[in-house]
Specification:
The structure is a single chain. The chain is an alpha/beta fold and 830 residues long. Among the domains are: 173 residues, Tetratricopeptide repeat domain (Serine Threonine Protein Phosphatase 5, Tetratricopeptide repeat, Alpha Horseshoe); 173 residues, Spore Coat Polysaccharide Biosynthesis Protein SpsA, Chain A; 110 residues, Tetratricopeptide repeat domain (Serine Threonine Protein Phosphatase 5, Tetratricopeptide repeat), CATH 1.25.40.10. Strands 1, 2, 3, 4, 5, 6, 7, 8 and 9 form a 9-stranded mixed β-sheet that branches. Helix 11 links the parallel strand 1 and strand 2. Helix 16 runs antiparallel to helix 17 and helix 21 runs antiparallel to helix 22. It is elongated and about 110 Å long. This is Tetratricopeptide repeat-containing protein. Pfam families: Glycos_transf_2, TPR_16. InterPro entries: Glyco_trans_2-like (IPR001173), Nucleotide-diphossugar_trans (IPR029044), TPR-like_helical_dom_sf (IPR011990), TPR_rpt (IPR019734).
Length: 830
Amino acid sequence: MGLRLTPSRDQGCGVRQRSAAQRAPSATAVLVQRAATAWRALDRRALLECLREADQLEPPHEPYRARKAMLEGGLALAGQLEPRRLERLYLLLCEAALTALEPEPREPELLNYAGVAFYELAARDVAGTLFEATLRLDPAHPDARRNLQAARSRRRVPPLAAATVATVKRLGGRARELAAAAQPVSGLRLSLCMIVRDEEEMLPRCLAAAREAVDEIVVVDTGSRDRTREIARDFGARVIDFAWTGSFADARNVSVDAATGDWILFLDADEVLVADDIPKLRALTGRTWREAFQLVETSYTGELEHGTAVTHSALRMFRNRPIYRFRGRLHEQFAWALPASLPERIEQTDVRVEHFGYLGVVRDARDKARRNIELLLRQAEESQANSFLDFNLGSEYLAIGDLAGAVRHLRRARANIDRDGGPRVLQFVPTLYVRLALTLRQLRAFDEAIEVLEEGARLFPDLTDLVFERAWVEAERGRLEEAERLFERCLEMGEAPSRYTSMRGCGSHLARIGLAEIATKRGDTEAAERHALLALEEGLAHPAAVLFAASVLVRRGASAEEVTERVERRLAATPTNAFLVGIALYEGGHVAAAEERFRKVCALQPGNDRARVAHGEALLSMKRWADAAATCAGVPDDSPVAEAARRCELFARLAAGDADTATAALERARAVLDAAELAVFEGWRDRLKGRDPGLLPAASAALLCQCLEALLRVEEIDTFAQLVPLLERCTIAARERRELLAGIYLRRGFLDSAAEEWIAACHEHGPDPDALIGLAQVAYAKGMLDDALVFAEEARQRAPTDARCIHLHQHLARLAGAGSDEMAAHPERP
């Protein structure tokens, strides 16, 4: 038998398909076993009776499962029969396949099996028609295209009995009729089902994109206090009020229960269908041989200007059947009800959805991660622990920066993979390996991270993200050559296949950024710039690549004009690109050029609050106090960047010495800033008015130090001197106060003042590693390498296991051994 029947083992489902009957319900198994007996006896009557009895099995999956397993049983028998019986077997296979197709001819797998049977009896035209029908329904069928090519080629076959030829001719007419009927269904309806609460900002964009794609919109509102319900009704949605029960599955099921369409599409308010893909989405409704579809979802993560994104397959569309309902308080699932042993019932599509709910500013505004953790912990109390629950908990702890919580749950999830079904069954497992390794790297547990990555690579050798994460582990361990090799390997592999949840760019611009970072560590600025500009091209002006390319040039000392020439002129003139280049210029000290770009962005996008805050901070750096205050005052209280805007405004008014307008601004800021931050600005205001500011809480020290350092940065020495006494009013230890002030002086280049603070700390409280490290840095900055090495050695002796002391001493010792030329080549502070 020369044709392909089922996907190969490399495609991961061939063996499972052939053993489906072993795991099927008992009624199906019994019927398939009867059919196997009929096949061995070549008993036509008994076999056709079994195929017809399949109609009586439990719908919707068991009739198809049984017919498929019966045909596979006959095909498997072909390799066991002598030639004289083989002709009878294939003849019976032709009739059996057509009988299996008669209840529903829209079955690609069964059409392909029928084509194989006719092909083996030299009916190439009929076989070709059946293979063409298979491909019409499923263009990506793993075997039908090869089978069609074989049917169109010339092939010598042994002569057949005249009776066989006549029967094949008769069955061929029936086969052509069934192949012609194998067409997508028209006229089926698609219902969009959503659950929402306080989504007036996100919902309009979602519904505007989806309205033309669906026949019905059902929105379940769980208690909105804004205009969410009105917006949904404006788009023609049927709105159902449902009291929140603490379970997303409960709310989701209410929406599905109310849907009247043949298919269900479910989205969240922060998800948007890509307009170009709507015709493809509509076409899916005619594919009744499928039970569910996976869409390609791109989730944008991090902060807006970073533009990082994760791409993964999302199961978002399914047949409207009573058996498909959701489970789980959070990360609710319905896949448990799908026929896992019939993978052909689920199709991976290229229909795209963009997800904006994981952007940093959105997550911060809603505190999503903490809410998710609370729901997941409640779910853990109510149900048996499982690896998926631990994976989700670990992911949420990672999102809020709780590395200890993240690694605890991710380790537990990894330990229970086999118990819960194994890495080939659980779809989240590839992402689990990546996230666990990332968490371990951040904890600097490099050996365990590599162990996890090696195990993951054995299971998922084509997942680029694992190689990408391994490259960063090696880079942070200082093994630059190995890191470089791995980043190059990422470029060779390209982006991970769509079946994985993958960080977009691991096989392109993010790997280039890694290579540029390696080149920077080596001091090879030319290679760093080359890779940075290639990242810009390979990322197709991806925000991460734009920001990085501009930053590399600025760090090297490029002028604003050179950045414009080498970066901006490669890009489309969009507000986003201007904003990103402006950030790089601002961080590199090109304040005037950055301010110009931020101003243009604000003019083009008046509602871009992040650009307004960035513009305000640039104006602060130019000491344009009134302009900075006015720019940030317009940012509304409910903006995700309202806190930064209020700090900027208050700083500007107080730096200008305007205590009265600062008082009014303080009253507005009470709705946004916490008490510790308000205390800083109130104390500054009181200093301006000549009043005693009183004591400040310890938590005020961080913001106060930021204000002091900002004043030194713009050389407002008198204002700095006026504000420094406020640090004495903070309820923190005297040694910590000295340390904070010394650090400010060191970073702003006031080396003598920094040394005085650390020396005073040593006299008053005794030498400690922090003060000695600080004095070593001051000595190094003054070019006094021998003195710096003495201080570093003293710090190392006092804290022999402190990584900072070890690194500093090693660095200075290396420079001392290399001589003055090496020191001149590395003038930055160690």
